[in-house]
Amino acid sequence: MSDLPNCPACGSEYTYQDQAMFVCPECAHEWQEAESSASADEGVIRDSNGNVLQDGDTVTVIKDLKVKGSSAVVKVGTKVKNIRLVGGDHDIDCKIDGIGAMKLKSEFVKKA
User: Fold this and answer.
1) Global pTM value
2) Which site from 45, 68, 74, 92 is most exposed, i.e. has the minimal number of CB atoms within 10 Å?
3) Is 52 among the domain residues?
4) Which distant-in-sequence residues (6+ apart) come within 8 Å of 57 by Cβ?
5) Which of 106, 103, 59 is nearest to 81 (CA)?
6) Averaged pLDDT for residues 78-84
7) Is residue 26 part of a domain?
């Protein structure tokens, strides 16, 4: 048989390759091979520039962030040391000087 992947949309085994794309003749779904291997890169947390973050890294805030329930603001350029990565929507746990413990989204930081 064929070593081509099944269609991720409908599961059809009758896929074919058209240059760099895979095509399903049953549902007309088109995808690249990278989509089928995207699940291997799922658990990696990246910063706003695409750099891989790890526990203990130092990051810099790239946007003014309002602190919920307070009038405090985390300013652009604030360095945050010794981050801890967690799952969920806000994927960084950290302590910020003058504010305390908080959670950040990785899309608002860059690796220092």
Assistant:
1) 0.63
2) 68
3) no
4) 83, 111, 112
5) 59
6) 95
7) yes
* pLDDT tens digits along 2-38: 688 888 889 888 999 888 889 999 999 988 876 445 4
Six-digit token string for 87: 């799952």
Residue with tokens 């085994």: 13
The domain of 72 spans 58-111
For position 2, what pLDDT does the model report? 61
CATH for 71? 2.30.30.40
Top mean-pLDDT range of 27-36, 40-49, 99-108: 99-108
Our count of domains for the chain comes to 2
Residue 12 vs residues 5, 35, 95: alpha-carbon distances, Å: 9, 16, 49
Question: Which amino acid, one-letter code, is at 68?
Answer: K
106: nearest Cα among 66, 64, 52: 52
CATH number at residue 29: 2.20.25.10
- Strand-pair category, 84-85 with 73-74: unpaired
Written as six digits, the tokens of 110 are 């860059």
